[in-house]
Amino acid sequence: GACADYDAAIQCDEDERKDGEDETESADSELWRIFFNRGNAKAVLGQMDGALADYDEAIRLCLKTGVRYSWFFLNRANVRQSVKDYRGALMDYDEAIRIGNIDALFNKGNLLVLLGRFDEALQCYETSISEGNNRAGVLCNRKGVEGILSKLGSAGYKVSPPRYKEQAERLVVEVSLKSSPSNLFTEFYYF
Q1: Backbone phi, psi, residue 62, to 5°
Q2: Pick from 175, 171, 176, 185: which is nearest to 141 by CA?
Q3: Of 10, 24, 44, 144, which residue is the least packed, with the fewest Cβ within 10 Å?
Q4: Distance set, CA 152 to CA 114, 158, 161 (Å)
């Protein structure tokens, strides 16, 4: 499959370096693509540790050449989120945003919803929209967070672990007031 092809390309590069054929930075400037793409393939296959290692190497190689690609940080953040490294995911989303990736605002907002940080999530969605991201998911999730915040007011709340509704791509987030745990309300999100 694809991973085997990427493995072969990396091995070929390593062999060339051992033979002294190509020790220039220009080789690094292309090698990052292989690591990034293999990381993407591993993420799709659910090989999250391998995906993270490949994204780390792609980022390391790019930084050597002075290039910073927001998609490296966005994809690594998505994988970190899936393995529940929320702190690392937030740092990578922030870096992708800093470089200029507005999709990272949507993803960061989604993570903040999962963490129950609704005010910050709303700010991410609002900024994403003001930057020109008017996809249905951003608009829907903004409306969902506005709904949660209007119901919460200043009362404390509890967020249940999220779950997917049936086989759909919609995530169910259940929130209840701490003062009234049986008063549960649900919002659906596109992730």
Answers
A1: -65, -40
A2: 171
A3: 24
A4: 16, 10, 18
CA distance 110 to 122: 9
Give me the residues paired with residue 158 across strands. 176
Structure tokens at 179: 């003062």
Contact predicate 59/77, CB 8 Å: no
Q: The pTM is what?
A: 0.79
Residue with tokens 């509890």: 158
Q: How many CB atoms neighbour CB 57 within 10 A?
A: 18
Q: In tens digits, what is the pLDDT along the chain, a chain of 191 residues?
A: 766 656 666 666 665 656 565 555 555 557 888 899 999 999 999 999 999 999 999 999 988 887 778 999 999 999 999 999 999 999 999 999 999 999 999 999 999 988 888 899 999 999 999 999 888 889 988 988 888 888 776 666 666 666 666 655 566 677 766 666 666 565 555 65
